[in-house]
Design goal:
Layout (H helix, E strand, L loop, with lengths): L1 H5 L2 H38 L8 H29 L13 H19 L2 H17 L11
Helix pairs in contact: 2-3, 2-4, 2-5, 4-5
């Protein structure tokens, strides 16, 4: 069965690729906010009634915060670019019926991620796993596109 699934480009894009994009989004979003939080935390730890650090310390904190926010922004842009790719869904006559049905169920999920926020993206990972189980597909992280 894995060979059949590996040959299906629609599953590679909509199931395996979408899951990889969501996992990358989750990883880099958490990392970006940790970076930004580190910058804010460093400022808070250095703050006294009057700033006790020099200009280099301030700039390092600001750059750390800006780097974290930029990481989150670039990561969000990458996910939005992925879900907006006009990859054609399989038609009813072509491909295997199960994979076409699975892809048709994934399409609204991609639209929800596109219109939603980080919570929808995190929930979509679990929804993809459930779709895979329902249609007898291998786990979405078993094949890297």
């Amino acid at each position: 069965m894995l060979e059949r699934v590996a040959q299906d480009p629609a599953l590679h894009f909509f199931y395996f690729g979408f899951f990889q994009a969501l996992r990358r989004f989750r990883t880099f979003t958490i990392a970006g906010w940790l970076l930004a939080g580190s910058g804010v935390g460093a400022i808070a730890l250095r703050w006294e009634p009057v700033w006790s650090g020099d200009l280099a310390s301030v700039m390092m904190c600001v750059f750390l915060f800006a780097g974290g926010v930029a990481t989150v922004h670039v990561n969000l842009s990458a996910l939005m670019s992925y879900v907006r790719v006009p990859f054609p869904p399989p038609d009813a006559g072509g491909g295997s019926g199960d994979s076409a049905d699975a892809v048709r169920e994934i399409l609204p999920l991609m639209k929800e991620v596109d219109e939603g926020g980080w919570q929808e993206a995190f929930r979509a990972m679990e929804s993809l796993r459930a779709i895979g189980v329902r249609y007898g597909l291998p786990p979405p992280d078993s094949i890297t596109p």
